[in-house]
Amino acid sequence: MSAYAHSGPLAGLPDPELDRRFYAGLPGRRLLAWLIDVAIILLAGVPLALVFGLLTLGFGFALFGFIIAATGFLYRTALLAGPASATLGMRFTGIEFRRGNGERFDAATAFLHTVIYMICIGFLPLQLVSCLTIAGTRYRQSIADIILGTTAINRPADS
Fold first, then answer.
1. What distance in Å separates the CA atoms of residue 71 and residue 49, rounded to the nearest whole number?
2. Which end of the chain is less crowded, N or C, counting CB atoms within 10 A of the terminal residue's CB?
3. Three-state DSSP class for 151?
4. Tens of pLDDT along the chain (159 residues)?
5. N- to C-terminal Cα distance for the chain?
6. pTM assigned to the model
7. How many domains does the structure of the chain reveal?
8. Is residue 127 part of a domain?
9. Is residue 2 part of a domain?
């Protein structure tokens, strides 16, 4: 019997019932990866925002939140579109994103995933639902994953 789903939009992904190792502990790993990524984004974005604010004689401080969000958007999109299909936090925790056909993210998927993720982050009820779907769906999918037919998996040993 194959360890992959037999049909549907996620047919290229390991089946959670037949090969549990790809999904074991994912909610906790995703949370830890997210915390690491938030720290990295803040370490990069806050100094950038401060410098911009000072260079504009204080006017740029009004864009502080936007600069942090833009830093996060660029960080996430660039790394998810890269060869590892994972942010630095995800690499540290041993997870990566895959499309429903089993392939890593391409630039378009990384961009769309990040857009949907940022929308969810911007609206607390959506983000809470997204956390619940990660904990409760068969493939441990967030709202962005469900919409795009993607998911995070534990990095295969051959990667």
1. 10
2. N
3. strand
4. 346 555 677 888 999 988 899 999 999 999 999 999 999 999 999 999 999 999 998 888 999 999 999 999 999 999 999 999 999 999 999 999 999 999 999 999 999 999 999 999 999 999 999 999 999 999 999 999 999 999 999 998 765
5. 23
6. 0.91
7. 1
8. yes
9. no
